[in-house]
Design goal:
Blueprint (H helix, E strand, L loop, with lengths): L1 E5 L9 H13 L4 E4 L10 H11 L4 E8 L5 H14 L4 E6 L4 H7 L6 H13 L15 E5 L3 H10 L2 E3 L5 H17 L7 E8 L4 H11 L6 H7 L5 H13 L4 E6 L4 H11 L1
Parallel strand pairs: 1-2, 1-8, 2-3, 3-4, 4-5, 5-6, 6-7, 7-8
Helix pairs in contact: 1-2, 2-3, 3-5, 5-6, 6-7, 7-10, 8-9, 10-11
Length: 275
């Protein structure tokens, strides 16, 4: 199983300088990818802009959206953003997409929340089918696509259009259940092989209270469930090792660990825990 690391694009106190330094350190370390989250109504950085910067600061790691909310963007613009990052990075983009759950993001973007599943399906068909590829360049050839979500239609979109499935975090048993459904959808469609399976988690070695507070705020829209998400914050080397082992045993191909504290020392301590 490969291990990737998230860039702290949504974490309070993160600066542009820190994000690029974080990407450079990850590229020089043991990580296989760097990844970003996507929000509109939050004090956060736009994911494709950050990945474009990371493309210039790195040479090895894959650049992933875990995930980007496809329906917030027009289809042609989404394809243009993805293809641009893919081209700038020399073909290293992993494009994770999902419908998004927060209504305030859609309101701020001036996009209808209803029907977003249908729009995402159309976007996937456009990108994967290279529709308008001669006009809306650069080339989208070779972009690795993941689809996230826990609904039946989400798994169906993944099986039809994507290279793999992106899970939204939680304990290894939750990932195992979702991975099983993704594999079933893949097989039902008669696709050969199996989908790539990506998972994620959160960590904080320094100020764990600060990390927990960030997760409660970031996931406040879920109500009381935000407390469960915060309780899953990995705050010790042992917790990280156990989490990694659980995901590996569940069949995960790439596990991305997202920081909840904006401090470069967090990245160094994560590497020590994984060494």
């Amino acid at each position: 199983m490969n291990i990737g690391v998230g860039l702290p694009t949504t974490v309070p106190g993160a600066t542009g300088e820190l994000l690029l330094d974080w990407a450079r350190r990850a590229d020089a370390g043991l990580f296989s990818s760097v990844a970003v989250l996507d929000r509109v109504v939050y004090d956060s950085y736009e994911p494709f802009a950050v990945l474009a910067g990371a493309a210039a600061a790195t040479s090895r790691v894959r650049l992933a959206t875990m995930i980007a909310i496809g329906p917030l963007r027009s289809t042609a613009l989404l394809a243009k953003q993805a293809a641009s990052v893919h081209g700038l990075s020399g073909g290293r983009l992993t494009l994770g997409l999902a419908v998004g759950a927060r209504t305030e993001d859609f309101e701020a973007a001036g996009v209808e929340h209803k029907g977003r599943g249908k729009r995402l399906g159309e976007q996937l068909a456009y990108i994967r089918g290279d529709v308008d590829g001669d006009r809306v360049g650069p080339s989208r050839d070779g972009i690795e696509i993941l689809v996230g979500g826990l609904s039946g239609p989400a798994y169906a979109r993944m099986a039809r259009y994507a290279d793999g499935y992106a899970h939204n975090g939680g304990p290894p048993r939750a990932f195992a259940n979702a991975a099983g459904r993704a594999l079933a959808a893949w097989n039902d469609l008669g696709r050969p092989g199996k989908p790539k399976l990506w998972g994620q988690g959160y960590f904080a070695f320094g100020d764990a209270d600060q990390g927990d507070a960030y997760l409660r705020d970031y996931y406040a829209f879920t109500g009381p469930f935000a407390e469960k998400i915060a309780a899953g914050n990995l705050t010790s080397a042992r917790a990280v090792k156990d989490y990694v082992r659980g995901y590996e045993e569940a069949g995960c191909d790439e596990l991305v660990l997202f920081p909840t504290v904006a401090d470069a020392e967090e990245l160094e301590r994560l590497q020590e825990a994984l060494a």
